[in-house]
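Deliverable D5.2: sample structural annotation.
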Amino acid sequence: MSQAITHFAVGATIAILGVTLLIPNVRYPRTWTIVAGGWAMVPDASKLVESSGTLAFHDSVWADLFWAHRTLDRADPTDSTIWASVAIAAFLGATLLAEHRSYRALDAVKTGLEERTLADGE
């Protein structure tokens, strides 16, 4: 089973890339990123509330609806720190990409407003 931080980082990375590349005008992009990271950890509720239902859900194919939770657990059965580190590095890289695109878009908007203001003033 993967560590919880691995699940969070994978879910948040998928969300931030989706928001950055596919839906750049979404409201509250960072909030969606955090929600997606939390969504990826839902099957691990079996660690908080240990019952036959939550344990069965965690091990079922339905857990993959939570950003491939079950697949990650099977790929990393030893709670590897390496997997967690790679997932966090990917999340940081995706965050840098999102921030770069966000600030670049902001500069384009500022430039457009300045040009419009100059044109209106003439």
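Annotation notes: The chain has one domain: 4-121. The helical segments are 4-21, 29-40, 52-58, 69-75, 81-121.
The annotation will be released with the project's public dataset once the embargo ends.
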